[in-house]
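Record 1 of the preview.
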Amino acid sequence: MQFSSDLERQLNGYGLTTVHILYRIPDFESVLQTYVWQHYDLAPDFPEMHKFLHFWQASLHGPLHSVRYSHQRLIGPNEWRRVDGEIKLQ
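->
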């Protein structure tokens, strides 16, 4: 398994996804707690976010109340170009 750097992910189309989760505290169902999750993900399908939410529902006891998310693609391949040259400052 090979891990890519954040820069490589961004060059491959990933952007930063921020998820704001409201969930119910198991012992006090009328009380809502907040959780913020951030990860690089691919829009519009958001496989990483869906994987995390499935994990939450399968493994954690706090039932979800609501989920809000935002996504920002930070850079793209067209914003980078190779430069053949060097300037030396003396």
